[in-house]
Amino acid sequence: MASVLKSDNAAEKKPAAQSVSGLAGFNLSDLADEGRSRLAECRTQIRQMLEQANAEADALRQQADERGYQDGLDRAAVDADRKLKEQAEQRAKDGLRVIRDAVQQLHRAHEEWMQQYAESLTQVALSAAEKIVLRRLRDEPQLLVKWAGEALQSTRASTRLTLAIHPETLAQLGQAFDELLAGSHLPEQTAVVPDESVQPNEVVVRQPGGDIHAGLSAQLSRLQEILA
Question: How buried is residue 225: exposed, middle or buried, by Cβ count under 10 Å (0-12/13-18/19+)?
Fold first, then answer.
C-alpha cells in the first residue's frame, strides 16, 4: 500500500505542476502584449503631442513673423507719413518764402517804377513850366524885376547889396531895376552891376552872407521842391 500511495501521490502531483505552469505562462504573455500595446499607445500619444507642439510652435513663429511684419509696415507707414508731413511743411515754407520774396520784389519794382514815374512827371512838369515861364518872360520882361524885388526883401539885415544882372538884361531893364532900388528900403551900399556869368533870365543878389538867386532857374528849383 505504501508503494501505491507513493504512486498516487506522484501521479497527482504531476498534473498539478503542469496546470500551474500553463496558467503562469498564459498570464505573462497577456501582460507582455498589454505592455507592448500600452507602450505603442504611449509612443503614439507622445508623437502626436510632439507633432502638435511643433505645429503650435510653427503657428506661433508665423504669427510672430506676421506681427513683426505688420509692425514693420506700421512703423514704415508712420515714418513715411512723418517724412511726407515734414516734406510738405518744408515745401510749404519754401513756397511761402518764394511768394514773400516775389511780393517784396514786386513792391520794390513798384516803388522804383513809381519813383521813376514821379521823376519823369516832375521833369515833364518842369519842362512845361520852363517853356511857359520863358514865354511869359518874353512877353513880360518886368517879371524878372519882380523876382529881384522879392529876393531883395529877404536881405533887409544886410549892410551891402549887389544886384548882378547880365549886360543884355541890364540894357533892356536897367531903368526898372534903378527904380526898384530907389523905392525900396535897402542899404545905402546897394548897386546894380553887369555880370556876364549870370544868365540873361537870371538875377543874383550878392551880400556878405551869401548869394541869392532870383531868376528862372531859382523859380524852377522851387517848383521842383514843391513837386518832390
Answer: exposed
